């Protein structure tokens, strides 16, 4: 089973599947309403056809067709005489693609702007900042190739709108998985991830009337290895026996190597109110999108690969709305106090909420997304 969830509290307007199969055979899916998340009263109910929350389960491989003719036999003919439910939409799932669940950005205007999810091997909590619409997104796909020890996760922080972060959440991890294939050594894996990021950026820039961009951080768990990549200032922090280890380095024009790269390409970096910006505009130097600055804002990620061992307790993926107010070690200390006991799944979500609330209490006005991934299950 694989789970792919688009980012944050707000997602694309159309209903999408939550579960899908990454096997090569084209399975069909059955659309059902999903009641795990409870939208406010003013939003469409979870059972409504217009509700953004939908659950799609793989169609059973037995001869059972919902809302259509059954097989031959008196029993079947008798059943067909009964009043049947309305025929359900049963689209064919794309081969090898994890389709994310989506929430319409419009539905959260004037409301709490929060989403929480406890998935298979992760928990995530997202909260909208002071903007009218949420620009963060996230995705998660577990049980890759029907292996519970393989998964891929991502957090995406959009700017200039949500189109780029939404596109990245829907496509980046799938592009990485396509490129990874059977790649074995670290250099091959790193190059495959890079191709996945570059392909996603190229595809987004071909979209009609593209605007804005998105920072991205992804974590692929495969064959006992943790492959963490980032472009922008979303961050991945690992708890190693309770000690925080940053697996990514923020891509900002204040970094000397990034500033030198930009200047060698004919751009300039200046500072205003203590914030370094490219061409006096953008405060991050890598990411998906940003067509008007593409010469300097590259989508090439930096990647770190390590083999998971028992000292690797959990991974935090979060947008910069957290890291601007909460340090790496402080985040690990808070999360660890929730994550190391019993009933871990419930406490993971509480830890995510605690970190978000702490950042807000310290004055963050930004969108904040925090994902926690316990690593013991992947050893």
Automatic annotation (TrEMBL):
Gene3D superfamilies, alphabetized: PPM-type phosphatase domain
Domain of life where this protein originates: Eukaryota
MF-aspect GO terms: metal ion binding; protein serine/threonine phosphatase activity
Catalytic activity: O-phospho-L-threonyl-[protein] + H2O = L-threonyl-[protein] + phosphate; O-phospho-L-seryl-[protein] + H2O = L-seryl-[protein] + phosphate
Keyword set, alphabetical order: Hydrolase, Magnesium, Manganese, Metal-binding, Protein phosphatase
Cofactors named for this entry: Mn(2+); Mg(2+)
One of the GO biological process terms: abscisic acid-activated signaling pathway
PPM-type phosphatase domain span: 121-375
SUPFAM superfamilies per the UniProt record, alphabetical: PP2C-like
UniProt-listed Enzyme Commission number(s): 3.1.3.16
Record family assignment: Belongs to the PP2C family.
Name listed for the protein in its UniProt record: protein-serine/threonine phosphatase
Species this protein is from: Raphanus sativus
